[in-house]
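Per-record layout

source: Flavobacterium calami
name: SulP family inorganic anion transporter
length: 549
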Amino acid sequence: MTKKINLFASLKSDFASGLVVFLVALPLCLGIAMASGAPLFSGIIAGVIGGIVVGYLSQSHISVSGPAAGLTAIVLTAITDFGAFDVFLLSVFIAGVIQLALGFLKAGSISNYFPTNVIEGMLAGIGIIIILKQIPHAFGYDADYEGDQAFIQNDGSNSFSFLFDVINHIQLGAVVISLISLVILISWDKVPFLKRLKLVPGALVAVILGVVLNEFFISSGSTLAIGKEHLVSLPVPKSFDDFKAIIVTPNFSAITNPQVWVVGVTIAIVASIETLLCIEASDRMDVQKRYTDTNVELKAQGVGNVISSLLGGLPMTSVVVRSSANNNAGAKSKMSTIIHGVLLLISVLSIPAILNKIPLATLATVLILVGYKLAKPATFMHFWEKGKYQFVPFIATLVFVVATDLLKGVALGIIISIIFVLRGNLKRAYNFKKEEYEDGDIIHIDLAQEVSFLNKAAIKQTLNDIPENSKVIINAHDTEYIAHDVLDLIREFKETRAIDENIKVKLKGFKEAYELENTPDNNNHVSIEHYYDVAKRALVKKQEVKEDF
């Protein structure tokens, strides 16, 4: 059941987070366009459409869409083969139409089968990629383009060997600005009186100070001055004709070219899978634990790619880097995403010369902190403590996301998770019972003997369909094993939506849960540590629980 949200209810925090995402997205849009062999403004157009159009149509409150690094190889090859950007745009148009069809066919439901440890491994892997790729920019070495996520780079070096090259290309002014930016960003989250300045994000302060410092270095003739090659490089239209040249439309005369259709289908599949992965990750990051209708998301992405192609923009997906920055900046609703798109549109048309004064070192520092929050040591310890069946898929996903790419890393993680589940399910049967109910009835949800992450979709849908002011009994009397994903799902339902919508929840067969419910100061809360304790025991002891609401 989806609650209606007032987009303007949290405008203060959403504007601040939208501003941060705008600062992060600007160089990424340009860098990905450059790497794709496309006009630079095509990346900006995709970012604007991803923010305003997809942001409005999507039901996700955290995710941010825009041109994705995962599509650069496909885009570059296609543009090179076609020899014309307008022919490639036709493929993007076709991809958008296919995504719309996938949304109506409810293909988005496959995201429910992505295990949590694989999603978390993907996020941690992307966090490490961000850190590895942004450290050179923080030191003033900008040989690799912004937004590159490939382990093996175009010059033959890899992400690790490239770090050693930094030693020979350190720009002292960039280091000074990076260190000052780092102090500002950390202080903004730690110092009490600075934390109260919610409307002014630390990233904006760091960017402004970086610009001011570099302008001072330039005016004083200091050797610390950062050159243009180390600043944001946005094209500056000088006339109305220059603006008109930005808009390129698809060449529909190439509709009979089979290769155009092949590229369109490829973009649709890859973009859709990356989007579903990001949406699942964004829902995991959302502190309010709101669920996104992935079928609506595919439709939103389809509309976004159709419009982007008609205006000369690159194909887009929901993007983890921008979504993580959005979440870390305190976004409350999708208004943040829309604001970031509006800021992109206004700024590139009105103040490109000012934006071109922003040091890449400052933006690199912002992204490094985003990467750290995705791959912080506590996440590794969390899965280590869960045991090998959780840790191995997590770490395998992480390593392969870093060493290959997002899709291959996630595919490997899912394969390993399935092998573990099949091994555990070899002699176990699954039975999930969902009873029909009417207003005023008590809803009984009986969990089976074996509940794995493969059952997550059915349970998630059942919990989502429960109306407000209901009474629910979730019975685990006969359950021997419950996957962590399902335990998290039940916990999040009980601690968030159940409280918000006055749904009374009784847990039966969850030993620690029952004990907590009978403590006088519980206030309808069950800690995750107790749930994990239950799962680790492998056998949930039967108990007789009085159904007393």
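summary: The longest strand covers residues 442-446. Residues 426-434, 513-532, 534-548 have pLDDT under 50 and may be disordered.
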